[in-house]
C-alpha cells in the first residue's frame, strides 16, 4: 500500500469512528428518550414539561442540530490533520 | 383594512418578488439549470434547502395533525428532522464529492449499469409526482379560503408562477426564489405563534410558552390543562399517544430514512462549491428547519386548547364569523345531533357534533385567537411560499430525470448542451401541467401516496446510496436486486392495506403490528439484506468503480459539478 493509500484509509477509519459515536447519540435522544424510555422519563417533570414528551417534541430536534455542527467541526479538524482541507 | 385586502396585498408583493428574482437569475447552461452553476454559498443553500423541504404539509398540515394526535404527532417532528442527521453524516458530503447532477447519475455510475439508472429514474419520478400533486392542492386551498377564488383558479395561478421561475431559471432561479420564500414562510409561521404564546402564557418564546403556566392567573401549566381537557372529553391525554410503541418506532425510522433519501433534498447538496460547504449547509438547513419544527408542537398545543375553549358547549348561533367561513370550505362541519343548539366536541363518535379537518388548524389559528388582519394575511402568503418552493424543487428533479438521465444518458447521448437545456425546460413545463391536473382533480389517495413517497424513498434510494459509499464491494447485481425488492415490497404492502388489493386487510393483519406508514423501515431492511446476500453470490465490481468509491471518501479536490 502506498503512503497516499495509507493516509486515505486512516482518514476513513477516523471518519467512521466519528459517525458511529454521533449516530449512537442520534439514536439515544430520539428512539431512546423520545420513544423507548418515554414513559420512564415522563415521571421527571421540568417546568410544565414531562421529560419524555419534551424529548419527543423538542429536545431530540435541538440535539440533532448540535450533532451536525459538532460533525462539521470534527471533520474540518480531521481534514486539516490529513491535509485534505481546501 | 380587511383581511382580504391585506391578503391580496401581501400575496401580490411576494409573487412580484419571486418573479423579479426569476428574471434576474435566468439559467444560461445546463449546469445553471441543474445545479445553479455549482457556486451557491452554504447559507443560501441552507435556506433554499429548508424552503425546499418545508412543504404545504409542514406549514399547513403538520401542526394541525399534532394538535389532534398529541404525542403520536412526535413521529413527524423527529422523523422529518432526524433524517437530516443521516443526510449530513452519511450522504451529502460524499455525493457532493462525486459531483454529478442527479441521484440516478450516482446510482448509474456507481453501479456501472443503465438498468440501475433507469430503476432510479422511475423511483425518482414516482416519489416526486406524488409529492408535487399535494403541493398544488395546498396552493388551491389557500387561494380558495383567503382570496375567495375558486380552488381550480387558485391551482392555475400557482402553476403559472412556478412555471415562470422553474422553466426560466432552473435550479438557479429556484435556489434564489427559495431563499426569499424561506424568509416569507418562517416570518409568517413565527409571528402568529409569538402573538398567541404571549396571549396564552405571557411568554414570547413559543417553545417555552408551551411548557409555561397559563396567563389567566390559575397557576395551571398549559400542558396539564390540555391533558385535563382532553381526558374530560374522552380523548387520550395529549402527552400520551394511542399508537403502539413498535409502530411509533417504525414510522419515525421510515420518515427519517425517507427524508434522507428524497431526491429533491439530496440534489440541493450538488449546488455548493466544496465538500465542507455541503456538510455546513446541511447543518444550517436543519437549524433553519428546526425553528419551524420546534414551534409547530407549541402551535399545536395553543390551537387545540383554544379550539376546545372557543367551541365546546357554546351556542352555535354565537360562533364568530370565521367559523361560518370555514364551514363553507367544508373543513369545519357541524351537525347538531342532540338538537340543543350547542356544539358538543367529544371523542365519542356518536355524540360528537363537530368535525375539524386538521389542515384548517394553522390557517384558522390566528382567527380563533383574534389576531389582527395583517397577521392572518401573512399566514396565507406563508402557506403559498411553502407550497410553491417545494413544488419548484420537485419539478426540477422531474425535468432533470427526463432530460438528463433519460434523454442525455440513455436515449440520445449526442444531444448538445443547448438542446438538453431546451429538453429540460420542456419537461419542466409538461411536469407542471401534469401536477396542475392532479391539483385540480386530486386522486382520492393523496394522503396515502405521500406516505408511500417516503416509504419508497426509504426502501429504494437510501440503502443503494449508503452501500455505494460505505461498502466498496457492493456490486450492481446486489444494488438492483435490493432496490427492486424494497420498492415492490413497499408497493405490495401499501396497496394491500390502503387500496384493499391482494386480499386487503385491517390493522389486525399488519405485519409485526406495523402500519403502512411505518413499513418503509421494514422494506428498507429487506433491501439491505437482499443487496448484501446477492452481492456475496455475484462477481465484485470492476476495479475502476472501487477506485471511484475510494475517491469520494476523500473530501479534497471536489471541483465543480461536471458532466462526463
UniProtKB/TrEMBL annotation, chain A:
Transmembrane region(s): 16-37, 52-72
Which chain positions lie within coiled-coil regions? none
UniProt cross-references to InterPro entries, sorted A to Z: Na_symporter_ssu
Q: Which UniProt keywords apply?
A: Membrane, Transmembrane, Transmembrane helix
Instruction: Provide an example Pfam family for this protein.
Output: DUF4212
Source domain of life is Bacteria
Does the keyword Lyase belong to this entry? no
Q: Under what name is this protein listed?
A: DUF4212 domain-containing protein
Q: What is the lineage of its organism?
A: Bacteria, Pseudomonadati, Bacteroidota, Flavobacteriia, Flavobacteriales
From TrEMBL, chain B:
Query: Has UniProt tagged this entry with the keyword Cell membrane?
Result: yes
Please verify whether the record's keywords include Transport: yes
Q: Main subcellular localization, coarse class?
A: membrane
Q: Enumerate the InterPro entries for this protein.
A: Na/Glc_symporter_sf, Na/solute_symporter, Na/solute_symporter_CS, Na/solute_symporter_VC_2705, Sodium:Solute_Symporter
Task: List the GO molecular function terms.
Answer: transmembrane transporter activity
Keywords of this entry = Cell membrane, Membrane, Transmembrane, Transmembrane helix, Transport
**Bilayer topology term:** Multi-pass membrane protein
One Pfam family name is SSF
Q: What biological-process GO terms show up in the record? A: carboxylic acid transport
Q: Which GO terms describe its cellular component?
A: plasma membrane
Location(s), subcellular: Membrane
Q: Which residues cross the membrane?
A: 6-24, 77-95, 116-134, 146-167, 179-200, 248-270, 282-303, 371-400, 421-440, 446-471, 478-495, 510-530
Tell me the domain of life: Bacteria
Q: Which family does it belong to?
A: Belongs to the sodium:solute symporter (SSF) (TC 2.A.21) family.
PANTHER family linked: NA(+):SOLUTE SYMPORTER (SSF FAMILY) (PTHR48086:SF5), SODIUM/PROLINE SYMPORTER-RELATED (PTHR48086)
User: NCBIfam families per the record?
Assistant: Na_symport_lg
Q: What is this protein called?
A: Cation acetate symporter
Q: Which organism is it from?
A: Maribacter aurantiacus
Question: What's the source species' lineage?
Answer: Bacteria, Pseudomonadati, Bacteroidota, Flavobacteriia, Flavobacteriales
Amino acid at each position: 500500500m502506498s503512503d497516499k493509500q495509507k493516509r486515505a484509509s486512516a482518514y476513513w477509519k477516523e471518519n467512521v469512528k466519528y459517525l458511529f459515536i454521533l449516530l449512537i447519540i442520534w439514536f439515544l435522544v430520539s428512539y431512546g428518550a423520545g420513544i423507548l424510555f418515554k414513559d420512564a422519563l415522563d415521571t421527571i417533570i421540568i417546568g410544565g414539561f414531562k421529560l419524555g414528551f419534551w424529548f419527543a417534541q423538542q429536545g431530540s430536534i435541538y440535539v440533532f442540530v448540535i450533532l451536525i455542527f459538532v460533525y462539521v467541526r470534527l471533520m474540518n479538524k480531521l481534514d486539516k490533520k490529513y491535509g485534505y482541507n481546501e | 383594512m380587511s383581511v382580504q385586502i391585506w391578503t391580496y396585498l401581501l400575496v401580490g408583493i411576494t409573487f412580484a418578488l419571486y418573479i423579479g428574482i426569476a428574471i434576474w437569475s435566468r439559467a444560461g447552461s445546463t449546469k445553471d439549470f441543474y445545479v445553479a452553476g455549482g457556486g451557491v454559498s452554504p447559507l443560501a443553500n441552507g435556506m433554499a434547502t429548508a424552503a425546499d423541504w418545508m412543504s404545504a404539509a409542514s406549514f399547513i398540515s403538520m401542526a394541525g395533525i399534532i394538535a389532534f394526535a398529541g404525542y403520536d404527532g412526535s413521529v413527524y417532528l423527529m422523523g422529518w428532522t432526524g433524517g437530516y442527521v443521516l443526510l449530513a453524516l452519511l450522504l451529502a458530503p460524499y455525493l457532493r464529492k462525486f459531483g454529478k447532477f442527479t441521484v440516478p447519475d450516482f446510482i448509474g455510475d456507481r453501479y456501472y449499469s443503465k438498468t440501475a439508472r433507469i430503476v432510479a429514474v422511475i423511483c425518482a419520478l414516482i416519489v416526486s409526482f406524488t409529492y408535487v400533486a399535494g403541493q398544488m392542492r395546498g396552493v388551491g386551498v389557500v387561494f380558495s379560503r383567503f382570496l375567495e377564488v375558486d380552488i381550480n383558479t387558485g391551482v392555475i395561478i400557482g402553476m403559472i408562477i412556478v412555471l415562470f421561475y422553474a422553466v426560466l431559471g432552473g435550479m438557479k432561479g429556484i435556489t434564489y426564489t427559495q431563499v426569499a420564500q424561506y424568509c416569507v414562510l418562517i416570518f409568517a409561521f413565527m409571528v402568529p405563534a409569538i402573538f398567541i404564546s404571549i396571549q396564552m402564557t405571557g411568554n414570547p418564546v413559543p417553545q417555552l410558552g408551551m411548557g409555561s403556566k397559563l396567563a389567566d392567573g390559575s397557576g395551571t401549566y398549559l400542558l396539564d390543562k390540555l391533558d385535563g381537557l382532553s381526558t374530560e372529553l374522552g380523548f387520550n391525554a395529549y402527552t400520551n399517544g394511542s399508537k403502539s410503541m413498535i409502530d411509533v418506532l417504525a414510522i419515525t425510522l421510515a420518515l427519517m430514512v425517507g427524508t434522507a433519501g428524497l431526491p429533491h433534498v439530496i440534489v440541493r447538496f450538488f449546488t455548493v462549491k466544496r465538500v465542507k460547504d455541503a456538510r455546513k449547509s446541511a447543518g444550517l438547513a436543519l437549524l433553519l428547519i428546526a425553528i419551524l419544527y420546534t414551534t409547530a408542537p407549541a402551535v399545536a398545543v395553543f390551537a387545540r386548547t383554544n379550539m376546545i375553549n372557543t367551541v365546546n358547549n357554546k351556542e352555535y348561533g354565537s360562533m364568530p364569523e370565521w367559523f361560518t367561513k370555514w364551514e363553507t370550505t367544508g373543513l369545519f362541519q357541524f351537525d347538531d345531533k342532540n338538537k340543543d343548539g350547542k356544539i358538543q366536541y367529544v371523542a365519542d363518535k356518536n355524540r360528537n357534533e363537530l368535525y375539524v379537518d386538521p389542515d384548517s388548524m394553522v390557517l384558522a389559528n390566528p382567527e380563533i385567537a383574534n389576531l389582527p388582519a395583517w397577521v392572518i394575511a401573512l399566514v396565507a402568503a406563508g402557506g403559498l411560499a411553502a407550497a410553491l418552493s417545494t413544488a419548484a424543487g420537485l419539478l426540477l428533479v422531474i425535468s432533470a430525470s427526463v432530460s438528463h438521465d433519460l434523454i442525455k444518458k440513455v436515449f440520445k447521448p449526442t444531444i448538445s448542451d443547448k438542446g438538453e437545456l431546451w429538453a429540460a425546460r420542456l419537461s419542466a413545463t409538461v411536469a407542471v401541467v401534469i401536477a396542475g391536473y392532479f391539483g385540480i382533480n386530486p386522486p382520492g389517495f393523496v394522503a396515502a401516496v405521500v406516505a408511500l413517497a417516503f416509504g419508497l424513498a426509504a426502501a429504494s434510494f437510501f440503502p443503494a446510496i449508503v452501500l455505494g459509499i460505505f461498502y466498496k464491494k457492493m456490486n450492481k447485481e446486489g444494488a438492483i436486486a435490493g432496490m427492486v425488492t424494497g420498492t415492490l415490497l413497499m408497493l405490495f404492502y401499501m396497496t394491500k392495506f390502503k387500496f384493499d388489493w391482494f386480499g386487503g386487510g385491517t390493522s389486525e393483519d399488519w405485519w409485526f403490528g406495523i402500519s403502512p406508514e411505518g413499513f418503509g423501515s421494514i422494506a428498507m431492511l429487506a433491501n439491505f439484506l437482499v443487496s448484501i446476500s446477492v452481492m456475496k453470490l455475484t462477481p465484485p465490481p470492476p476495479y475502476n468503480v472501487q477506485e471511484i468509491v475510494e475517491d469520494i471518501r476523500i473530501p479534497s479536490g471536489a471541483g465543480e459539478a461536471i458532466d462526463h
